[in-house]
Amino acid sequence: QMVVVNDDVAEQFLELGDKFRAFHATKLNVYLHLLTTPLAVWAAIAAINKISGQSYLSIGIIAAYLVALSVEVSSAVFIPTAVCITAIVLLSAPGARVGWMLLTVLFCVGYFGQDLAHWGTGEETFQSSYQQENDFWLQLLEHTYYLIPLVFDACLSADSPKRTMRPLLDTRSIGGDDRLFSFSVGIGIVVAVLW
Fold first, then answer.
1. Sign of torsion over alpha carbons 96, 98, 99, 103
2. Tens of pLDDT along 45-85?
């Protein structure tokens, strides 16, 4: 059901998405980010699995992340994000057997590949728009947290009604608080996995 989002959390993501898409105006840049961003995330998660010796921790963290995200972004952005992130996590388990050098190289290819995509398309990076600001680290954290959903949001046209669809988990229909719900379920998943 298409509904204009009127929730503060979802509107915050849409505002961030509008800022992000200003630096990802060419489809080529967005499509390159669909390759480079998951590669960097995969290498980071494979490294966590390698350090911990198992994948339960990363599965728990990602499950909590997806629950939190499911109340924050439209279902049209959440579903491809969830598929992508689930594939990353599933493929990161065997990736933990890869050597440190290769993991580092793959992370760098993914991370700096984003910069190369910007350079190749003549677009500045989103990070460059806030790196001189006092709250740089907070903005970088937010940018990193939402990076994969932002890329999928940028795949949609700016005026697409899919951007304003209700989130997959819409707790307002049961009188709930989205942030409290996602935090509670997320903590529950992490505790269950660590148990």
1. negative
2. 999 999 999 888 888 888 888 988 888 888 899 999 999 99
Matching residue, tokens 């998405």: 17
* CA–CA distance, 80 with 113 (Å, rounded to integer): 21
CA atoms within 13 A on the CB side of 22: 9
Which has the minimum average pLDDT: 27-41, 56-70, 132-146?
56-70
Q: State both tokens at 20.
A: 């992000």
Euclidean distance between CA atoms 165 and 80, whole angstroms: 14
103 neighbors 47 (Cβ within 8 angstroms): yes
Q: Is the pTM for the entire model greater than 0.85? A: no
| Residue whose entry in the numeric block shows the structure tokens 């439209």 | 74
Distances 106 to 43, 88, 136 between C-alpha atoms, Å? 6, 13, 26
- Residue 167: beta bridge partners? 74
Rounded CA-CA distance 93/182 in Å is 26
Write out the two tokens for 21: 């898409």
Measured between its terminal Cα atoms, the distance across the chain in Å is 38
Q: How far apart are CA 102 and CA 111, in angstroms?
A: 14
